[in-house]
From TrEMBL:
Stated name of the protein: Resolvase HTH domain-containing protein
Keyword terms: Membrane, Transmembrane, Transmembrane helix
Organism of provenance: Elysia marginata
Source domain of life: Eukaryota
Keyword Membrane: yes
């Protein structure tokens, strides 16, 4: 089922305020009754200023970016350590210590 656009959410809220049943509204917008109730709850929270922070997508993006950065840093550190070990081994070999 597609997400409701802003104008559809406004229409949904208007229909409910106009005493249209939740089932009828859900059928009209081709959504579940749960979607109608959640939309009403979010509108109530928004109107009363008690809405929880809901930047879920932003949080997911930030977490993914942090994970990628950490992985890149770990890979770079491993590469640097390997290069240092190889250079040290080569220097020891050239110096005849091995």
């Amino acid at each position: 089922m597609p997400r409701l656009r802003e104008n559809e959410r406004n229409q949904l809220i208007g229909m409910i305020r106009g005493r249209v049943s939740v089932s009828t509204v859900a059928h009209h917008f081709n959504v579940t009754r749960r979607t109608v109730y959640v939309t009403l709850q979010r509108e109530t929270e928004r109107a009363t200023g008690s809405q929880k922070d809901r930047p879920r997508r932003l949080v997911i993006v930030v977490v993914v970016v942090v994970v990628v950065v950490v992985v890149v840093v770990v890979v770079v550190v491993v590469v640097v350590v390997v290069v240092v070990v190889v250079v040290a081994a080569a220097a020891a070999l050239v110096a005849g210590l091995w």
